[in-house]
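ok trying again, last paste got cut off:
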Amino acid sequence: MSTGFFGDIQKIRYEGPESTNPLAFRHYNPDEIVAGKRMEDHLRFAVAYWHTFTWPGGDPFGGQTFLRPWFEDSMQAAKLKADVAFEFFNLLGAPFYCFHDADVRPEGRTFAENTRNLNEIVDYFEEKQAATGVRLLWGTANLFSNRRYMAGAATNPDPDVFAFAAATVKTCLDATKRLGGSNYVLWGGREGYETILNTDFTRELDQMGRFLNLVVEYKYKIGFEGTILIEPKPQEPTKHQYDFDVSTVYAFLQKNGLENEVKVNIEQGHAILAGHSFEHEIAMANTFGIFGSIDMNRNDYQSGWDTDQFPNNVPEMALAYYHVLSGGGFRNGGTNFDAKLRRQSLDPQDLLIGHIGGMDCCARGLKAAAKMIDDGALKTPLDARYGKWDSPEYQKMLRGEYKLDDIASWVEKNNITPEPASGRQEYLENVVNRYV
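nice, full thing came through this time. structure:
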């Protein structure tokens, strides 16, 4: 049933690279086989409920620009928003969506009221999912917007806030399980500090470790079969956040005995804020064995903050999906568009056009990545660069069969005098460009 919000727009179809229709896919063909799998099954696209249906269009210097008929804090408005959301998923052909609790239910006066509101919406979502076939990629709790979380949630100096946040995650994990979610995400937007002057690192990191262990314990208690994910981000809104990047998260997981229980949801924009590239963070997660899922967006490279724009850089996407595919592809994870319109993009069709462009960009990147892997375009020169390590003597060094003095004797006996070899960076950069 149409809500009328999108007018007479019909379901978005694949029309091929020559199409000039802004409401059609040019590169994303869900049924196209890439590397032995349907494109839809590779990419596992999801729509972010918060930016797409909840964000009012504000920025640090200006308030609301979007006027949506569901912009009020009531159950009736929440259900209208759900109607529009699932109509949007169907028009776009997106197989998944993601949400925070605060995105989908009215804010109650108490924890119990919040829970009742969330459960009522989950009932509604169950009906919508059954009718449309759209699935939940992941759920999460908003532990950063309400003023109670101004000094953090798990890391708050007030234990009552810790308890309220933990109870909220419990209800959101219950909701995610009910809706068949593939993952549950924790993003510590306020888990950090504004100044060291009033911050006890030891206490806060211990609290954060206990909180995450509680989540994992409860996952097993209720039989949730999805993956628990942490989303790294270095700063903004706080001056420094403890889950700075993939490497920091891995160290935190190791310290708390959770490296085999929790994986990461990596956002392109957050990777840039941490001083990395997106592909760096994905490759690092593969190295540590904690890659889970991705939030797809981009930053404005002139602004220096998290602008959450739709992706439009095919070479960046090609390298990102190269590392996704090299690590075996998504298992429970997928590609969530944690992206929002610019505040001047007021028309309902702009919501569709932004997602269409992002999906086409990702599709082109995926196909380029699959071809690079198939051709060995990057792996062959990479293997050659490290090839000497495969020799028996050097393998003994890695296995610990040679001690430091043994190595020194071996170098002297064999007159080892290394000569530098070219890293061939410019050649490899040109190789990537040939595929995009």
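cool. The longest strand covers residues 135-140. The chain has a mean pLDDT of 97.
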